Amino acid sequence: MAILTILEYPDRRLHKVARPVTAFDDRLHKLVADMTETMYAANGVGLAATQVDVHERVVILDLSETRGDLRVFVNPALTWISPETAEGEEGCLSVPGIFDKVTRPAKVRVHAQDAHGNAFELACEDRLAVAIQHEIDHLDGKVFVEKLSLLKQARARAKLRKRHTEEQRERQRDPHRVARREPTGL
Ligand code: GNR
Ligand code: NI
User: Residue 91: nearest ligand to its CA?
Assistant: First the structure.
């Protein structure tokens, strides 16, 4: 297992559209294992392969308190979205330090495969509905800040660029320090 580097907005690679998975092999299982270790290390509730610069349709989620309820979604697709919407506060491991309200369909149904290729369908509401939509957006090259006003998007880019240059300076001073990481809640 390995902890992978999480891409941070603004980074063009976050806007690539991921390809469907066709082989449910050891390589896929290693990707899922590495993504799992990376998500837990970063205190995230979800992670899309896009965020670790792998442009394949793989998502993991763990919304449990105990971090012991991992769900793997390969080739996830929404098969139904509710007409009613809900507003929720979102954060993203690829947009550290930025949290804002996003409006999305309140309930969805998702069709996906597990790591062995077995198909399943899942009805999602509340935080699960928010999280799976957030992750499928990543696979389609979309980051939640793009749902905010253009002013907020510009502010987010400015804040993160500043943060990245500060981190670069800190690394020059101490090349061995580990990056700061905050939990992203949900
Ligand atoms: O850890 C995460 N928390 C979160 C909070 C509100 C809405 C969505 C999320 S997903 C995020 C992890 C992440 O960036 N996944 O892509
Ligand atoms: Ni995210």
Answer: 1
